[in-house]
Design a protein that fits this description.
Blueprint (H helix, E strand, L loop, with lengths): L3 H6 L1 H8 L7 H40 L1 H37 L19 E6 L12 H8 L2 E2 H8 L5 E2 L2 H19 L3 E2 L5 E2 L1 H7 L17 E2 L4 H6 L4 E3 L6 E10 L18 E11 L4 H18 L4 E5 L11 E9 L4 E10 L3 H6 L1 E4 L6 E3 L1 E9 H11 L7 E2 L2 H4 L7 E2 L5
Parallel strand pairs: 4-8, 7-13
Antiparallel strand pairs: 1-10, 2-3, 5-6, 8-9, 9-15, 10-11, 11-12, 12-15, 13-14, 16-17
Helix pairs in contact: 3-4, 7-12
């Protein structure tokens, strides 16, 4: 969450910068009102507690010298007690509203982030590996998958409904190979591998900034827990309410497991294939670092994402997201987009964001600053090492051949027992 003191000290400037995200963010104005209401209640409670304590001290002195006056003061203390009970109940309700409103306010974009309305205003930084000039018309991944029997869309719907797929045979092996390959790369780059739960407590989602904003995009269970919407959430939640040793920073984590999203608001969009699935696979990276290092770590994290695509010899580009296209927790984001021959365009496969102290504040993650001897918030960064669903598509489409087979990238062959080509199985 954002530091409430920033809003109190310089509301107009902070609100102006946040609204460059191209939304009105009514919660900014709502916060100013509820913050005043909550602080007034806190002041009233403090004043009554001070008065009650003073009366209690008087009563102690008067019990022996003036019992009658002491009894009168006891009645006043009882009245104050009832007032405090009512005020405290009200303060609890207002504070929850204050907290929900604060959590709904996004982070402040960095000054060097391009100001823009949407993805059309993002800025291309570089392109790497030119797309191959194919001598045949490339097939979309869903047609290739059906022809080669490496994904079954019918059985996916039978089992889980729309936006579900069963990866089959070499298709499943390719997904597993991509998972192991990306994890190995990140581990060799100094990331500690975790395998966290996919059931997430609500407080973890509040801490990372996914609640209350993204509730409709998540699958909520009857016990109040949620299915993980992205690997970033458990990797940040793992260190919630902890004070990290400064010597251990930067702490780099990676994980690869399944995530879930309802894809609310995307009806009819990317319905074919495995781009937008309710259940999908990512290899994620999260970094905890000192505040002075987070800009540098963002560049290193983005380079790590690029290293995956370079190793697979896939064409890609890197873009700087504009204010209107960034996630709410980020102050700055680079997207890595891979080439999809079927669409004849680049599509996002990785997103690396610097969240500064936003998630650490919400999750209460600090470190002991050895110079100031104070506990300060760490900075957190998150990056999709790659979306494995989309990486699977990129390999299938970019490595397809005119004869309808798929060449397996050299970097993946050892993960598939030396297999070099995916062909239709013989029955």
């Amino acid at each position: 969450m954002i530091d409430p003191e920033l809003l109190r000290k310089d509301f107009n400037d902070v609100a102006k910068r946040i609204r460059t995200r191209n939304r009105p963010y009514q919660q900014l104005d709502d916060f100013a009102k509820v913050d005043q209401e909550w602080r007034t209640l806190v002041s009233q409670i403090q004043a009554l507690n001070t008065k009650r304590n003073a009366l209690s001290a008087q009563i102690t002195q008067l019990i022996k010298t003036n019992p009658k006056q002491a009894e009168q003061l006891k009645n006043d203390v009882v009245k104050i007690k009832h007032e405090l009970e009512d005020l405290t109940k009200n303060e609890t309700v207002v504070h929850q509203r204050w907290y929900e409103t604060l959590c709904a306010i996004p982070n402040i974009p960095d000054p060097d982030v391009p100001i823009g309305a949407d993805e059309n205003d993002n800025v291309e930084l570089r392109k790497v590996n030119k797309p191959k000039q194919l001598t045949f018309k490339p097939l979309p991944h869903w047609e290739l998958a059906e022809k080669l029997e490496i994904a079954d869309f019918v059985r996916g719907v039978k089992i889980g409904g729309s936006r579900h797929t069963v990866f089959v045979g070499d298709g499943a092996r390719l997904m597993r190979a991509l998972r192991d390959f990306t994890l190995d790369m990140h581990r060799k780059a100094g990331y500690l591998e975790l395998l966290p739960p996919i059931l997430i407590n609500a407080d973890v989602l509040y801490g990372t900034g996914h609640l209350p904003k993204s509730r409709e995009d998540m699958f909520e269970l009857t016990n109040g827990q949620f299915l993980s919407p992205t690997e970033e959430v458990p990797l940040v939640g793992a260190y919630a309410n902890e004070k990290l040793d400064e010597k251990t920073l930067p702490l780099k984590l990676t994980s690869s497991t399944v995530s879930f999203r309802s894809e609310a608001g995307t009806a009819g969009k990317d319905m074919r294939g495995v781009i937008r699935q309710h259940q999908f696979y990512n290899t994620e990276m999260v970094i905890y670092c000192l505040p002075k290092d987070s800009e540098k770590q963002l560049e290193l994290m983005t380079a790590e994402c690029e290293a995956v695509l370079k190793a697979l010899k896939l064409p890609y580009r890197v873009i700087a997201l504009c204010t209107g296209d960034m996630g709410s927790a980020a102050v700055k984001t680079y997207d890595v987009e891979v080439w999809f021959p079927c669409n004849n365009k680049y599509r996002e496969i990785s997103s690396c964001s610097n969240c500064r102290e936003y998630q650490a504040r919400g999750s209460h993650i600090k470190y002991l600053n050895t110079k100031t001897k104070q506990a300060d918030f760490v900075h957190t960064l998150n990056g999709t090492g790659t979306s494995l669903n989309r990486l699977w598509i990129a390999v299938v489409e970019n490595y397809q051949t005119k004869s309808g087979t798929i060449n397996i990238p050299l970097a993946l062959q050892k993960y598939m027992d030396g297999q070099k080509v995916i062909r239709k199985p013989k029955h």
